[in-house]
From TrEMBL:
InterPro entries: Beta-lactam-related, Beta-lactam/transpept-like, Diverse_Enzym_Activities. This is Serine hydrolase. The keyword Hydrolase applies. Gene3D superfamilies: DD-peptidase/beta-lactamase superfamily (3.40.710.10). Keywords: Hydrolase.
């Protein structure tokens, strides 16, 4: 299969002296040419990667496989979770949610006397945001099928709230997509408009994202765990906004204080650190890590199969990927391409 070189390739290869330079900022190189060429070679050998985009200091690099383009829209899987986090932050600023410490009972009072009544008083939005609700694990990284069945059938909310607590809320990380849709349901309860309408007005349209697709479950609420469909350039804009502290083209889209909280380490995860342990963990539905070499802090939105929005503030770089794989192994391989090859081009 032939590949389409990056659409900005003419500009990117304008400098043959070893770096890609941003016009007017020639003392500050954006990309290392040799490493960009190595990245392209690696991408050509990775059939599952449909798109990889990078932006740094105004200079862009984009790579698409044949048949794929900047208008191609894909399910970004659990990147959706990170978007839900941002919507919670906006809702808090607008007064729809008082605090991340609000318990579930405050959102679902009709279930407050049910079998999960005690848990509903103890589990808060914060616990859902950091994947530490304490509920028995309902989904794993690799198994989304059972949850999908529940999402498209009646009774999801009652099921989710009736789960027994398996451990103390907040005491340990346990990845659970059920909790993220529960978070979306809680958010939807406080809004004056449907959640998708809120997302379009508060987040998507300010970023120039006009065609986002976000299917709803049986309850009519967009699925908080996954299923959001974006293009690679739209993902890049989300990453650029995050890098700018929630700001986009002079407008504060997500509160800066919430961006700082969302990307600050709240809890250790079950993923072994590949660097300084204190830099690896989880924020508010955003993954935290460090990059090889100088151990610069990084954070990312991660979707199953290798859908990533990866931000390294110290390098001023945002990298996004889309793949057509349904594989945890491919997700690991894609993350390796980002961390070991793509980011090296920004040094």
């Amino acid at each position: 299969m032939a590949d389409i070189p990056c659409t900005t390739r003419r500009a990117a290869l304008a400098s043959l002296a070893g770096t890609f330079l941003v016009p007017g900022v020639r003392s500050q190189p954006a990309w290392n040419t040799e490493r960009i060429q190595a990245l392209e070679a690696q991408l050509r050998a990775a059939p599952y990667v449909r798109a990889l985009l990078m932006e740094r200091r105004g200079a862009t690099f984009d790579y698409y496989k044949q048949g794929f383009s900047g208008s191609s829209r894909m399910n970004v899987a659990s990147v959706t979770k990170s978007v839900v986090s941002l919507l919670v932050g906006i809702a808090m600023e607008r007064g729809a949610i008082a605090s991340v410490e609000e318990p579930l009972a405050a959102f679902f009072p009709e279930h407050a006397q049910g079998p999960g009544a005690a848990a509903m008083q103890r589990v808060t939005l914060r616990h859902l945001l950091i994947m530490s609700s304490g509920f028995g694990r309902a989904t794993t990284y690799d198994d989304y099928i059972d949850l999908s069945r529940r999402l498209y059938a009646p009774g999801f909310l009652a099921y989710a709230l009736a789960r027994p607590l398996a451990y103390e809320p907040g005491s340990r990380f346990q990845y659970d997509s059920t909790d993220t849709h529960l978070l979306a349901l809680a958010l939807a309860r406080r809004l004056k408009v449907p959640l998708m309408e809120f997302a379009q007005e508060a987040l998507f349209r300010p970023l120039g994202i006009d065609g986002a697709e976000w299917p709803a479950g049986h309850d009519g609420v967009p699925i908080g765990a996954a299923e959001l469909r974006l293009t690679a350039p739209e993902m890049l804009r989300i990453g650029q906004m995050m890098r700018a502290g929630g700001s986009w083209q002079g407008r504060q889209v997500v509160p800066a204080a919430f961006v700082r909280e969302a990307t600050a380490r709240k809890i250790a995860t079950d993923i072994p650190p590949r660097g300084r342990p204190e830099l690896w963990g989880y924020g508010y539905l955003w993954w935290l890590s460090s990059i090889p070499g100088d151990e610069s802090p990084a954070y990312n939105a991660s979707g199953f199969g290798g859908q990533f929005i990866y931000i390294v503030p110290a390098l001023e770089v945002v990298v996004v990927t889309l793949t057509d794989a349904i594989s945890r192994a491919v997700a690991i391989q894609t993350a390796t391409i980002i961390r070991e090859t793509a980011l090296s081009a920004a040094r």
